[in-house]
Amino acid sequence: MNGSAFLFWAGRGLPPGIFDTHGMMTRFLTSCSMRQTQNIYLIGPMGAGKTTIGRLLAKALDVRFIDSDREIEQRTGVCIPMIFEYEGEEGFRRREAEVLAELCSEDRVVLATGGGSILLAKNRELLHERGFVVYLQCSVEKQLERTHKDSNRPLLKTENPRVKLQELFRVREPLYRSLADLIVDTGTHSSRSAVRQILRAYYRASANL
Ligand SMILES: Nc1ncnc2c1ncn2[C@@H]1O[C@H](COP(=O)(O)OP(=O)(O)OP(=O)(O)O)[C@@H](O)[C@H]1O
Ligand SMILES: O=C(O)C1=C[C@@H](O)[C@@H](O)[C@H](O)C1
Ligand SMILES: [Mg+2]
After folding, report:
1. Residue 186 C-alpha to ligand 3 middle, in angstroms?
2. What distance in angstroms lies between residue 114's CA and the mean position of ligand 2's atoms?
3. What's 184's domain CATH number?
4. Tell me, what's the ipTM?
5. Beta-ladder partners of 33
6. CB of 115 closer than 6 angstroms to any ligand 1 atom
7. Which of 85, 170, 179, 181 is most exposed, with minimal Cβ within 10 Å?
8. Residue 187 domain-assigned?
9. Where does ATP bind (predicted)?
10. CA-CA distance, 38 to 57, in Å (whole number)?
11. Any idea what DSSP says for residue 136?
């Protein structure tokens, strides 16, 4: 293992319980093993659990958690639906790319990205370069279940959110997959179980360097 501290928990040993992975399915892609990184970036569709799992993961690693959607809201002082209303999706994507570029310059962070952040090639490149990328995956049915009470997702303010989510899935799923160092199904696993899978795979990837 390279002596420079590229592991969050370098020198501290493994976080307790991360091998406690009974019954979990992990698809581990080794492409990241050539890159040194101190960051974990969560990608995936709305309601997949990026914010929820990201918080838990950062806590387990004792590193900073950043949610790019919240960061955009804090910087602009308005909520995401309002940005969509005044500047359209294009305006939002511009802001998102700016914020992402800044957040990707940080080290030792767990970053929950916006569901559409992978649409721009420059964002995908940055995420790939600077972090261990985890695709949190779940079915459209699960997404609907998890998002139906929340009005903070402008793309779902439509007559038929199911159709919208299916359309987004068709376009985005190949992009999420192509970028992922690890894919975790949050539809069938609890948040805590997802965190354990991520820690285990990240540790393995780092140990392969
Ligand atoms: N296994 C699970 N993993 C993650 N979240 C879950 C799980 N089961 C239920 N949830 C719930 O799903 C809801 C949506 O999760 P969350 O807001 O973290 O998704 P998100 O990916 O950040 O969505 P968005 O892209 O819209 O910000 C939360 O209320 C969370 O508690
Ligand atoms: O899937 C999307 O395009 C979005 C997901 C959210 O995280 C927000 O970034 C915004 O609502 C757009
Ligand atoms: Mg979120």
Report:
1. 14
2. 5
3. 3.40.50.300
4. 0.97
5. none
6. yes
7. 170
8. yes
9. 47-52, 153
10. 13
11. E
